[in-house]
Structure formats: C-alpha cells, structure tokens
Amino acid sequence: MARLLHNLLLLTVRLTLKIRVLSYWSLIYGYCALCTAVALLKLWWSILIRPSTTFQWAIRETPPACLNDTSLGTHCYVRIKESGLRFHYVAAGERGRPLMLLLHGFPEFWFSWRYQLREFKSEFRVVAVDMRGYGESDQPLSADSYRLDHLVTDVKDIVEYLGYNRCFLVGHDWGGIIAWLFAIQYPEMVVKLIVLNSPHPSVLADYALRHPSQLLKSSHFFLFQLPRFPELMLSINDFKALRSLFTSRNTGIGRKGRWLNTEDLETYLYTFSQPGALTGALNYFRNVFSFLPLSQNNVMSPVLLLWGEQDAFLEQEMAEACRIYIRNHFRLNIISGASHWLQQDQPDIVNTLIWTFLKEGECRKMYRN
C-alpha cells in the first residue's frame, strides 16, 4: 500500500511538472503568434500606404567618419582559441591601467559607449567590445551559438586575453543581462558591477510573468523568436523600424537629453545593413526562453544600477526589486527624463554617477591585475 501511494505521488508530481512546462511553452508560442499577427497587420498597412517603397532597403557601403574618430580609441581584434571567434573592440587609455569592460545591448555596438570611452580613459583601460554577432566581431550562423552560457564565456575569455584577471564590468540592455550573469558565475573577476537599464535576470523573469504591462513591453522578445520575419520587419522601408527605436517619441534617444544626430544614426544603419548583422543580433533573443537559471543567483560584487525613468521597454519597479539579489553594496539611481538609451542621451549624468560609485571605498587603489 505504501509503495502504491509513493508511485501515485511520484506520478502526480511528474504530471504536474509536465503540465507546467506545457503551459509555459504554450504561453510563449501563443504570445509569439499574437505578436506576429500584429506585425503582419502593420506590414499590410504599410504596403497599402507606400506599396512601392515598403520592401526597399540598401546596404551602406561607406562607414561614417565618426567610426574612425581617433579620440574614441584604437580599433583592435582578438581571436579566442577556445571558441575560434574573432572579436573587435575599441580601446582607450593606457595599457596596464585597471580594465573597464563595456558590454552593449540591442540593437547597438561598441559606438554606443563613445561618451564613456572618452570619459574614463584618464584612469582606466577602457574597452568597448562588439559582442558576438555584432559589428566587426564574428557572427556564427547557428542560433544555438548565442546561448547565454556562450555569451558569458566570451566575456571571461576576452578579459583574460586582454591580460587581466579582474575588471570593472559595465553593461547596458542585453549587455547588462550578460554582465549580471558573469558577475554571478565569476564573482572573483568583477571588482565592481555597473548595469544600465537591465534588471537582474531573475527579476525580469518573475516580474514579466506576474505583470501584463511588462509582458506587453517585452512583446519583441516573442516576435523575435521567429526565423527571418523579424529581420524583414526591421529592414523594410529602409530600416524604418530600426530608425524608430532610436528616434521616435516613445522609444528614442534624447527626449530630454542629447539627441542622436544624423551621423550617429547613420552609424547604426551602416552597421545593421551589413549582411547577417540583424540575424546575429536577433539570435540573442532566440535562446532567451530556454536558458537554465544559474543555481546561485546572488551577486557578490558592489553594484551600481542606473535606470532611465522614461524607459519604454522596462517597468521601473524592477530596478528596486534587484536589491534582494545583491550581497554587497547596492546603489540605485533613477535618472529623470532619461530613456532606455541613457548612456547616450544623458552621458554627463551617467558618467558622474559612475565616477562617484567607482571612488566609493577607493576600490581602484586596491585593484591588482
């Protein structure tokens, strides 16, 4: 009798787990279908309005001059033996100084850190990386190559191949997610962690499931699961959707700060018009629902979290919720009027807050490579 009850209990637990998994993926694919339907309606409407230009876009052949601005730093490359991938990065500041590693988000590349490259090179070796699949870094074809464990390992390999065993890690958006996970997995390699508009991964997952408002703001996560269709939607009408991300009233840069000027915008259009550039960037999203949470979710490094008050993609309440996962000093600054792209539209405020955080405890003096 006891064995029968044990087997029934075990069967019930297994059935419950299967139902939860089925419900989870049903929610994801159902929302994917809804987002796709909305995107198709928008595409159909654009065809009706401007049928002759809807499917026109062009590869930019000549890079804007600002991409070769020597005041931003030196263009370098490193090939990682383990993965075989070549990474492009821009470095400013003298070799041998403490390493500040900058990880960009979507849809960005090293250029999004132009203000920070100039600002922190006086005391740091500042390195802004084109992450896997972006810019001049290699772009693996398989979506499976963009699993989070690979992206975290990339950061470790880059730090070590630059000749360091620790760094001051700064991440924005997707770069922030990877920075959180890197600090969790390799706490001994992070002196201080600075994250911009990117909640702790556990906070993002929990909050999105419990708040329909965030689920709506995260609808692009679901649309981007599809093959090829998101690339089409971002590139039609000469990259109209991509332009809108940076310039529209709801999501754009500089509503109350610095505007993205024509040349700055052209750097993004040049970079993402190159063959395969959009697919590499979108492949980050195509693995996000299948990653396994790390067993240890706490961050042991001091953390500065900067948050744009007007972020159109993330609920502000998530910023404060990150506190429960920090086992060290935690500072949160909400920047009034700043957008999701706060290091570009409010660089002076962002840089000042970062300097203040870096100088707390004079941690730089205690740093050893």
UniProtKB/TrEMBL annotation:
Occurrences of domain AB hydrolase-1 (ranges): 98-344
Annotated InterPro entries: AB_hydrolase_1, AB_hydrolase_fold, Epox_hydrolase-like
Keyword Transmembrane helix (UniProt): yes
Transmembrane segments: 21-45
Pfam families named in the record: Abhydrolase_1
Record bears the keyword Hydrolase: yes
Similarity-based family: Belongs to the AB hydrolase superfamily. Epoxide hydrolase family.
Protein name, entry field: Epoxide hydrolase 4
Species whose genome carries this gene: Clupea harengus (Atlantic herring)
Chain's gene name: ephx4
